[in-house]
Records
---
Amino acid sequence: MAARRHPGSCHCGAVRFEAGIDLAAGTIRCNCTLCTKQRNWAAIVARDAFRLLAGEAALSEYRCNTRTERHFFCATCGVRTFGMGTSPRWGAYVAVSVACLDAVTDEELAAAPVTFLDGRNDTWAAIEG
């Protein structure tokens, strides 16, 4: 299945975006302390596959640990909508919270493969289960 344009937003609707995502290609969950506490579940897309439609002024940014990845959340409702970074694996990327995708069915999310990453030990390799 090819990437499809998915609309997304925060809870209050101040932050709106769209991203070209192929959920069948997989999603990630990381066990680092930030992702664990946020219950973050993301789809990784290239930066040019992501477009912020509204709410740039409503975004707050958090950087942790190495301060290289930018975690964005809505300053009004507090929902983390996406993050941005650069990695050897993905290049310049956007990590879109799949929970913020507005037009995805529960069945599509249940069918999306999940790769678990070992961010807690800063290895970023897939955890073999």
---
Amino acid sequence: MYKKIFSVAIPMILSAISIPMLGIVDTAILGHLDSPVYLASINIGATIFNVIFLGFSFLKLSTTGLIAQSFGNNHLEKISRQLTQALVVALLIALLLILFQSWIETLALRLTAENGLAADMARQYFSIRILSAPATLVIYVFVGYFLAIQHSRKVLWIMLVNQVGNMILDYIFVMEFKWGIAGVAYGSVISEYLALVLGIIFLIKTHYSIPTLNQFKQWISARKEIIQLLVLNRDIFIRTLCLMTVFALMTKGSARLGELSLAANAVLINFFYLMSYGLDGFAHAVESLCGAAYGKRDKKHLENILHHVFIISFNVALLFSLLFYVWGNEIVSLLTSIVQVQEYAKNYIFWLVIIPIIAMPSFVYDGLFVATTQAKIMRNSMVIATIFCYIPLWYSLRAYDNHGLWLAFLGFFIVRSLSIHIYFRNWKKNWGN
């Protein structure tokens, strides 16, 4: 069982870790320029797009859950139909993002930034980076599809082309061409479209059947399936909207404390991203393998997969905690040469030591409920943790400055893990229904 889990998880971990590695490289490049305002601006800009694109990650999650179950039933025609429907939804959303970009930009900066040079630079970043929306959202669907049919190595190659290309272009545009924050944005846009081209090549080589015009009309007018997809996406979107709120308020709180806090937290949040994407690799294994088992209605096999993934994920979370405890200061120094930011950030590393173990169960359970398309459970547990824990703590702990921000962040994961575990126990009792 471990071999099967790792065969899916390892490529997903490598591809997933490449995402925060991009943020780390962005931070490291801008962190070695002559002012903390560059770090502050990339924190604002990157947070906005992490939030926006994270908001539409339901495209990946719903595609994985639905197609994994069809894959378990060996229903190839249904897989092609579900993939086509997801691609249409992704392109429509991307079109709306580009059409309404000026309104989105105004609202996003109002929520995440204070007025000043950092906000102005973040605005420049936004105006360029938004052009990558069609590529980003279609790649989400491709990733969900390849994961569902257990072709995780294709996901790895797509993400490597995206992220490694981005890192190289960032260095060229920022360090050689001196384009500053705009160079980081252009690097992201170009690399996204390179990855999209590779994804299309991979798609052509799978069992995906390109629909005829009549098939296309039938597939996008299949009322029952479209409603199922939209309801599933709605619940995942609400869940993700809560998570977006958490990160937006984290950035807003950092901005309220000043550019030094904003810059330091930009460095520290990359520790969390590194951990979360690492654990996400095993959550993706749960999505793929448990989705197929759920499609076959094999409860014993599903529970066996879940048990093994929990053991692996706990040990991985423990390794991250040890890594941050032992080498946290050294990692901060690698990411920025600005002494003020280094000294400030080092006072808050211990929060990153605690969070991995606390957060770990929520990652595994999310994978399970994606696989079984139980999006309401994911939605409800996230709403509880955000509205009844994080937001009250965020307001009530403002007197404790940056420690208050990180304590609220920790409290969010405590409630999130506990609530989704309670939902899991009830769901397990009612499996037959």
---
Amino acid sequence: MSNETKTQNSVTRPPIVVVVGHIDHGKTTLLDHIRKSNVAAGEAGGITQHIGAYEVVHNGKPITFLDTPGHEAFSKMRSRGAKVADIAILVVAADDGVKPQTKEALAAIKANSLPYIVAINKIDKSGADVDRVKSELAKEEVFLEGRGGNVPFTEISAKEGKGIDELLETILLMAELENFTADSGKFAFGVVIESHLDKKRGNTSTLLVRGGTLKKGEYVVAGEAQTKVRILENFLGKSLDLGAPSSPVVVVGFDKLPQVGIEFKAFFSQKEASTEVQKFKEAQSKPNAKQDAKTPQEGKRVVLGVVIKSDVFGSGEAIRHEIEKIKSEKIEIKFLRIEAGEVSLDDVKLVSSAKNSIIVAFKTSISQDVKDLAERRGVEMASFQIIYEISSFLKSRMVSILPAEIKRTVLGKAKILKLFKGEKDGQVVGGKVAEGALKKNAKYDILRRENKIGYGKIGNIQSGRANVGEVAAPDEFGAFCDSSVALAVGDTIEAFLEEEVRGEL
């Protein structure tokens, strides 16, 4: 969640920003320029080790940037339904436009319900075409400010430094509107964003503090790894006494190397830390306890996004197991979040950002505030007391979002024998039905030497100078034809009917 419940220890925290986009569109150049320009003079050059994140100050206000291309922690954590960043910058090159990785990054942003800014980069390049980029983004349902939408954007040249200040100001404005807060009085929690073995110092990790305050002398647990916090440093390698919310901090001395993307928690005593590690191991050993971290390959299939909120964790996993039995080549169920607890406002925000998504609540409550937000955002929620009813409900929901299929029925074929006068909207032809029948208002394909070269629609049909509804083989006919290309003697027209039918699983 972006914010915690307000307490007397609540503080405004800096925004955490991730930069995403297609390869070679300038993500690294942008981050390099921001770091060199906004980290205190003399200190930027002191960053000798890549730790995955750093802090900058713009107009006296701090911003935390995640600094790993295609950030591993970001991609791994989003598949588990947890948030790493608060704001995303989607970088799109002005001379290259929207590319496959642009679309992937956009899907990740929307799946995480992340506020985001579009940075149109490389405006200094000779082939830059900002308007084309904006149009391509609109096709991906990214509607920018000034073009009928509310997604902020800046035009930049990361190489020359143009527009960077405006981009940072937009981040700070967005952060002010979102009002990111944290309870500084709690024990720290957050995400492991980098891990490596330092030959001199041992297992070392960069932790992104999402909430609470991390202090020297406390114990940190990340999955099966734990350590007492003896060495605590900032992104410049300087010693710290504490790590505040939104800070990237380096902790040294883990007994095992923590996984990138896993969540961490801080504790007062070693006993509490060891108990937490044991709980994690037990949870991992249970059947179906591990959520699949792979992002579903959506391809051309329709995707139904599902958030499951249940009374206890075990119920959520049982529901997931039942739902996974519903298989279809035409539609895929994507689990956006599986958690125990009440349906939250953040659940509604997540679902509202993803097309064809729904919240399933099992033996858990939904507050009036959540119901009101869901109604405003058009989010569908369904509550259940019996697990198997969820499968039945989702089956019907899947059918309802399947696109209608076009059923085509071939009526017959006819040979064009003669051309008459041309009309304003088509031409009059004479022919003979070779197979089946031709019907008034039927569509047809034009075949010339057995190759399809066009299409059209039959208007009026005459047989023996009388207007008829259809004419069957082997009769001759006259007809008014509206074609995409002019018909010629010797052409074959293949008539057919099309109707929309509801898709089936």
---
Amino acid sequence: MEIFVGNLAPQTTEQELVDLFQPFGEVKWVEVKREMFTGACKGFGFVEMPGRQHSLNAIAGLNGKELHGQPLRVNEAQSRPARGGQRRR
């Protein structure tokens, strides 16, 4: 299950997210979205855990937990609508 993690501080690393989520189960992959030029965290990232129950436990246990003084927003990632289609004129 893919998990959205929001309200991340600019200095947040992938390893910090791995360390936060591992107590709840296996972490398949982690991605912190970064600014192209500065490399600073954009404020959100994603974590994938293979088990649904482990993922739900992580969401319940980490939503609102502070990292770098900021409360995390943790929930199930929503699929993004496809880009494209008709353009406005």
